[in-house]
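Moderator note: this is an archived Q&A kept for reference. The question asked for a predicted structure of one protein chain; the sequence and the answer are reproduced below.
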Amino acid sequence: MRRLNLRTVFALFLVVIVGMSGSAMPSAVAAPAEPVELTVFAAASLTEAFRQIGKNFEKANPGVKVVFSFAGSQQLAAQLGQGAPADVFASANTAQMAVAVNTSRVAKDSPKTFVVNRLLVVTSPTSKIKITKLQDLATPGIKLVLAAKAVPVGQYALDFLDKAVKDPAFGSDYKANVLKNVVSYEENVRSVLTKVALGEGDAGIVYVSDVIASSKTPVKRVNIPDTLNIIASYPIAPVSDSKHALLAKKFVAYVFAGDSRLILARYGFNLPK
């Protein structure tokens, strides 16, 4: 009887185990879903501000990873025209945004200006030539670094020179003499700042925001007065064929939100009037 009872107990035990494996045993935990990547093409001058905004956007939208591509706006517009996948485009001028519109990557009524910027002359701390006023940029022998004309800040620099030649304090030959001193035309504004900081140029023209964002970069400043300065407008828009259209629109709206405004202001950008 004792042997029979043990066999019976063991059989019942097996039945219970089998039943648990079919119903009561916990199932395997599903692997977490891959984050949604939102690709943002943005002008190089937006690097630090947008990285912070991107981190905040990710916190506010769990499961989203913001991937930035920072470069000269003309490079980004060209990449969009060639079909590069992207979800949002933020340009440092309206001209390059118009390029994206003309290639149908951005809808005509989508771009909106979210900030404006100003020009600033930077000089190298290691330069043996003293550059304390704007007229000094025309001094023979100065090594001047500018962005290429196709780059927004490069065209803005030329616009500043066009204003200056109309001012008697500079003279009609000011622009020509300044351009004689150019030793390098760069593909983006950060390259201009870097070359001047490294002493590869005595002076350069960048945005105010670049110097604030790169506060540890050793350069000196020469301000451009309001009467001669150029206001750079920055438009932003979702890319028309974005695979994450709703999320792209949400990011654009987030750039206009209060916290993002504070970040942009901290890096030297101003609100459009």
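Archived answer notes: Strands lie at 36-43, 64-71, 88-90, 112-117, 119-123, 144-147, 182-186, 203-207, 220-223, 232-238.
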